[in-house]
Structure formats: structure tokens, C-alpha cells
Design brief:
Elements: H1 3-16, E1 36-39, H2 66-78, E2 83-86, H3 97-106, E3 110-115, H4 122-129, E4 134-138, H5 144-151, H6 155-168, E5 175-178, H7 189-198, E6 203-205, H8 213-217, H9 219-222, H10 226-242, E7 248-250, E8 272-275, E9 280-282, E10 296-297, H11 303-307, H12 310-325, H13 327-330, H14 340-346, H15 351-358, H16 365-368
Parallel strand pairs: 1-2, 1-8, 2-3, 3-4, 4-5, 5-6, 6-7
Antiparallel strand pairs: 8-9, 9-10
Helix pairs in contact: 1-10, 14-15
Length: 371
């Protein structure tokens, strides 16, 4: 990867976001406060995806009950939360999933369901269509061959049927396609865009691959090379401009402008709180690394005490201060972003930091804190 290739991508991104206002100083960023709850209501899943950050499959023996989840949603409101992002595993394997979904709007919480879509039949689609919500559906290939190689035989057809059931019920505008770019599927991105356009689905999100769960065991096999990542960013940035007003393409390349650094999107640690299926609480969805950064368990402490506690403040402080403690990062203009892809681009000529970051998760703070 060369400086000229970085400039090419940067210029492309700058054109897409030329009207973003940038701040001159990154020394005193505004505080991150809790706004969104991200509970994983089960570890059970009907699929066995090769890149699953949770290694989902079987139900955990001590998962939160319906009563506990409802109490957790109430606690989120009391703690200042305004939205909930329901995930798993596969949330819809729970018989009470739709009851949980229906309960959130009664508390004036915005609700998003993260699902693989394979279990959405006509009955479920009709029920969901009566709830004000967004549905994020994972689709990792534009065709059966690619998607099934990642998520299992037969999964593509099941997911597409689920999507089409929702579209039939008038929910196309409420669907977000989630496509995780990997070596196995990065060439399918144009096809995924066509798939969404045909169904008038307005948003495609490209969440970065996370180095945890099953993906960690196959990291070098799955993750994009630097050049692949640059080509992906260049294509998505260009296509986003072409589709402006018709479709939104959401990727981490839009949070940066290498030739014009600033703070359009800084690390959001502490704003979206992850709760795992057993009730353990983490500072954000990027923490999948055991007990070290666990803030407590909702069966033992109130959510309000957790999100306002000393431990999360210590972790946030460490996270934001960490770039100033690493020589290679200290004078970097992009140091406060929190996404290791940005730091990797800005630090291309430093082999030591490259080695660290190439083996770290998409949001580097979760793993680089201990360096």
C-alpha cells in the first residue's frame, strides 16, 4: 500500500463528504453518554456462520428470561436510553421474541431487530409490520454460492424469502441489509446493491469483520488485505455518490477524510451498551473478550449504576488516552477515531504498529488497551 493509493481513497471520500464540518482540536472531545441498549437475548442460532463474533449455536444454560429482559428495557429508559438494538445469536429462535419487540415501543424506545432473516415466514412478517421498528438482516452474498459458503447450505434462499415476506408487507423502507466484507464475498458487493435496489431497500450497512468468536480462528483467511480494503472503500464511496437520494451505503470509510482530518465520527464507546445473553454488561458491542472489561451483571447491579459507574469511566478514559501513550499514535491527526482501519492507513510506514493493528479487532480500543 502506497501513499498515492491512500491519497486516492482519501480524495474519493472527501468528495462524498465535502460539506462535513471539522473541528480544529481533538484534545477535548465531548463526553460519551449512554443512549442505546444492545442486548443479545440468546446465544442460540439456527445458522453456523464462519465469522460469528459470538460463536453462536446452542442456548446458554443461564440466559435472561422474558421478565428480566423487560425489566432491562425499563432500566434502559431510566438510565437515559432512547433506543434498543435487539440481537443474538438469532433473536427469533426465542418464542417470546415478538413480545419483547412489541414491549419496547410501549416504553417509547426505538427498536431495531438484528436477524439473519431465515425464520421470517408470512406470519412473523405480518406481525412485525404492525410494529414501528427497523430490521437489520444479514446477507453476506448476492447469490446462493457465496452466502451459503459463509452461513450454511440453504441459508440464502431462506433469508431471501424472509426479506421478500417483509417487502410484501410493506416493510422495504424499514429494512437494512448488513453485509460484512470478507475475502470470500467482497466481489459480491455490486450484486448486493442491485438486490436491494430491486426491492427498494434504502440502506446497506457494511459492518467490519470482528476478530472474535469463530472469525478469530480463521482471521487471516477471512479478513480483507489492505489493498482489498482500499478497493472496497473506493467502490463504496464512489457508488454512494451515485446513489445519493436513493440508497444509503454505510461503511467506516465515511467516518474519515485522510486529507482533511477532524471529528465527524469519534469512537462511541459508552453510548451503546452491550448486554450478553447471561446479563453481563460491556462498554460497547466491540467488546467480546471475556471478563476483563465486563462492567457487571444486571442480575447483581442496576443498569443505571453500571452506565454511570466508575469502571466505565475508567475504561473510556483509558480508551481515549491510549493513543497519546503510544509513540506512533501520539502526533497522529486521526488518533481519536477509535477505528483501527483509520490508524492503519495513517500509519502505513510504521511496521510495528501495522503488526499490532492487523491482528486487532475492527475497533482497536478493545484489544489495544492492554498494550
Amino acid at each position: 500500500m502506497t501513499v498515492s493509493s491512500i491519497d486516492t481513497i482519501s480524495q474519493t471520500i472527501c468528495k462524498r463528504h465535502e460539506n462535513i464540518g471539522y473541528e480544529d482540536s481533538l484534545e477535548k472531545p465531548p463526553p460519551n453518554t449512554f443512549r442505546c441498549l444492545a442486548p443479545e437475548i440468546t446465544k442460540k442460532c439456527n445458522l453456523n456462520c464462519i465469522h460469528c463474533y459470538l460463536s453462536a449455536g446452542k442456548t446458554h444454560k443461564n440466559e435472561l428470561t422474558l421478565k428480566e429482559i423487560k425489566e432491562l428495557l425499563q432500566a434502559a429508559v431510566e438510565a437515559g436510553g432512547i433506543s434498543v438494538s435487539l440481537g443474538g445469536g438469532e433473536p427469533l429462535v426465542r418464542d417470546d421474541c415478538t413480545e419483547i419487540i412489541q414491549y419496547a415501543p410501549s416504553l417509547d424506545l426505538l427498536i431495531t431487530l438484528g436477524t439473519n432473516g431465515a425464520l421470517i415466514d408470512e406470519k412473523i412478517a405480518k406481525k412485525l409490520s404492525g410494529i414501528p421498528m427497523k430490521i437489520q438482516i444479514s446477507l453476506d452474498g448476492a447469490g446462493k454460492e457465496t452466502h451459503d459458503s459463509i452461513r450454511g447450505a440453504g441459508s440464502f434462499n431462506s433469508t431471501v424469502k424472509g426479506i421478500d415476506h417483509l417487502v410484501h408487507e410493506g416493510m422495504a423502507k424499514d429494512i437494512v441489509i448488513a453485509f460484512t466484507p470478507m475475502k470470500a464475498n467482497v466481489d459480491d458487493i455490486p450484486g448486493i446493491i442491485d438486490f436491494a435496489l430491486e426491492r427498494q431497500i434504502p440502506v446497506i450497512q457494511f459492518p467490519p469483520l470482528s476478530s472474535s468468536g469463530r472469525a478469530k480462528k480463521r482471521w487471516n483467511e477471512l479478513r480483507l488485505s489492505n489493498q482489498q480494503m482500499l478497493r472496497f472503500w473506493e467502490f463504496v464511496a464512489k457508488k454512494s455518490g451515485e446513489l445519493k437520494g436513493t440508497m444509503d451505503l454505510l461503511a467506516d470509510c465515511f467516518s474519515i477524510s485522510i486529507n482533511n482530518p477532524g471529528v465527524p465520527h469519534r469512537c462511541t464507546i459508552g453510548t451503546q451498551i452491550r448486554v450478553d445473553p447471561q446479563g453481563d454488561v460491556y462498554p460497547c458491542q466491540c467488546f467480546h473478550y471475556g471478563s476483563r472489561y465486563c462492567l457487571g451483571n444486571i442480575r447483581e447491579k442496576s443498569l443505571k449504576d453500571i452506565v454511570n459507574g466508575q469502571r466505565i469511566e475508567e475504561i473510556k478514559k483509558t480508551c481515549f488516552q491510549r493513543p497519546f501513550n503510544i509513540e506512533e499514535c501520539r502526533n497522529c491527526k486521526w488518533r481519536n477515531y477509535g477505528c483501527h482501519s483509520v490508524v492503519r492507513l495513517a500509519s502505513t510506514n510504521n511496521q510495528r504498529l501495522m503488526t499490532v493493528l492487523q491482528n486487532s479487532p475492527p475497533h482497536f480500543h478493545a484489544e489495544i488497551l492492554s498494550l
